[in-house]
TrEMBL record, chain A:
Transmembrane portions of the chain: 20-47, 59-80, 107-134, 146-166, 205-228, 264-286, 321-340, 361-382, 438-458, 478-496
The entry's keywords: Membrane, Transmembrane, Transmembrane helix
Protein's UniProt name: Tripartite tricarboxylate transporter TctA family protein
InterPro entries listed in its UniProt record: DUF112_TM
Coiled-coil positions: none
Domain DUF112 intervals: 18-445
From TrEMBL, chain B:
Signal peptide bounds: 1-25
One Pfam family in the UniProt entry: TctC
Keyword annotations from UniProtKB, A to Z: Receptor, Signal
Top-rank taxon: Bacteria
Assigned protein family: Belongs to the UPF0065 (bug) family.
Organism placement in taxonomy: Bacteria, Pseudomonadati, Pseudomonadota, Alphaproteobacteria, Rhodobacterales
Coiled coil (UniProt feature): none
Record has Signal as a keyword: yes
Protein name (record): Tripartite tricarboxylate transporter family receptor
Organism annotation: Tritonibacter multivorans
Amino acid sequence: MDLFIQGTLSLFGDPTSIMIFFLGLFGGMLFGAIPGVNMLTLGAVLLPFTITMDPQNAVMLFSVIYCAGVFGGAITAILFNIPGAPENAPTCLDGYPMTLKGEAGKAIGAAVSCSALGGTVSAVIMMTATGIVASFAVRAFGPPEIFALILFGLAVSASIGASTLWKGWLSVLAGLMIATIGSDPVGGVPRFSEGAILGLDYQSYYLSAGIHFIPMILGFFAVSEVLAQAINIAKGTRSRPQASIEFPTIAEFVAVRWTIVRSVFVGFFAGILPGIGATLAAFLGYSQAERWSKNRDNFGKGELEGVVACETANNAATGAAMIPLLALGLPGGALTAMIMGIFQIHGMEPGPLIFVNSGDLVWITFAAMFWANLMIIFLGWVQTKTVVHILRVPFRWLAPGILILAIVGAFALRNLFIDVWIMFLAGVAGYMLRRTGYSAAGVVLGLILGKLGESAFAKSMQLMDYNMLGFMQRPISAVLIIVAAVIITSSIVSELRGKKLQKALID
Amino acid sequence: MKNFRNLAMAGLMASIAGTATYAQSALPDLPRGFGNRPLTMIVPYGAGGGSDQLSRAMAKAIEEETGLSFQVVNKPGGGGTAAIPDFMISPPDGFTVMEHIDTAVAAYAKGDIRENPAEDWIPICIAQITFSQIYIRPDETRYTDWESLVAYIDAHPDELSIGILGKVGSMELVTMQQISDALGLKVRQVNYDKPAETYGSLIGGHVDILFEQPGDVRSFLDGGQMKPILTFLNERPSVFADVPTHREVGADFEALTRFRGFFVKKGVAPDRVEYLEAACKAGFGNPGFTEFNEAKYMNLVQSYRDREGSVQLISETVDVYRDVYEQLGIGQ
């Protein structure tokens, strides 16, 4: 506690630090909110300047950008169905329908409060347990455990956003199949990137890179929404959403308290594991919430609980991601890699000795993340009262802007134009999927989990000498696989029973 | 104006130093119509990785030395192949430079790409050459050095696993295959695709051995989380004076290296190629760049090759890969 107070004091002790703190907060939020540019863009631009900064200010700036950036993307997800960053994608699922119902203020309010809450709790856990948690996570979670975790994720993902369980599974399977395009993770064997179509040989270097989930997300959510709204306008059935600035009530938060607790837990764990991160945290948080919720049928139609679940989880992942970085020198993502770079520029190496050698700096990082998360509430409250008014702009003016942002976002990912085409294809496909009751979110989740899962599976096989039973000989992976199997079976059983019940009622 | 000042400065430095070896050699005149707008530097890997760091450091160094300015663009994917079409459709005017690494050479030898980096592209320089090593955990008790590791593997074949960041046919896997064949080692190979995960797997105890280049794991070496026990090089570099080389432990092969260089397309006017070659040479000699390469352990072997030297290194490497692939039955 003394160390935390000391960190806080040196954080707010001089005007320069305070200025940098708020700069990072606003910057992260702004860049997070615009698709195409994100907190990574801001980080890359600012990185060279940190050489001349005090190390404490530099580390603090990036920690603050990280926290604020993960929240920033929620706003565009809720208002326009464009996730500002991939970790905000599941926020669209219920956030945007809430906007259509005229509850934009409520959705943003919930996103703000839960981001702050998730982030703060994970910052507190980070402060108290970095050393222990880091060495536990890196020892306990090898490729087989990660594969089991992903299998578990797949088991719960079939229920997201589809009209029936079967359509949900088909959507997820489609995603898994798209994930195989590219080259395989071990042998580098080209898959679908060369061959023959209608007797014509082709070889595409672009396709060897595989289909990335970000253009898919932008297409499925932003582009297909523009299409849907345009069709509604043409038919004359579109009603403009109301720009409400109503904040959620305390009672509404109390009602979803268990979802919040679960999401903190899920987000924190996904955040610790290198390579899993905030995006998966958000999706897992969402599917968990849907699985256990009493209002299951309302998910995807504008349920507050859905927004709460993913925004809590993705911010909970931020604090957790700092743990392997600080304690072991293992950055889980690009922004944490930049933070590691800052430590190195100033002659410090993140790793087991960092608490001994530069303990004060670590505590400044902790304090900065804690306060940044608390500040999000106040800033978010102001935003709720202001940005919602963008909805008053007529859609025919808004639509080109949304499309431009989406194109920039898709291209900026890898600077490859193929991603823009994929986005438009996904846009059309997404519109069809929605009309027919399949789940765009399921496809995206299948794609993300498919890539991670195949890589983890291949490594597990090599590690365990191609013995499948090996998964059941390791306690953590065995438990996760059994739970996944139970969830799949029970969902199939309840779907079948529901059918029978319906039939009985009709008869 | 800035050009002139830098040129004059370089000339001055050279005359003061007297022995201008390769670093501060005078630049040729800027070809007409060249360098009047920023050049594009394509990096076929993601932001923050080894190639990205090198490209940004080199871009900065060339800017300081010549006044040319660069826009660095990352086009990651497909293990470095996704960026190639964009490079190939760019006009051959010298305004587009691509960074690439020995992986492209391996991909060409294997038949994964059609472009021969030594013939279809013009290398303007190679700026990093490094070697690989084998690492263990410092607190490992079953074995403590290469000798005891080999003894342990012989007594327990196929028990230990080695983490390798690379795919089938990569420099990493080929080298491991060569040493395993030479010494009759039986270890299980696990192919990783993300650096952090690979290093975490050694530290967390999921694999027992790690194959890497020292610059990539320097922080773990300095932090005492990893320990080198074998160097793939003909002679011991001074920094790793107490680590044996593969030759010393009885493996008789020329070890492949990791190298990173810069290319323009075939068809760029010769005066522009010459200018870029000189600019790259000047960039390599830039003090900031030298410091960067030292921090990455890229000063342990001579890391610079000019155009001719690069073509030679690439062509030789193609031959080595072809031989190895033939022996292993990989590729076309």
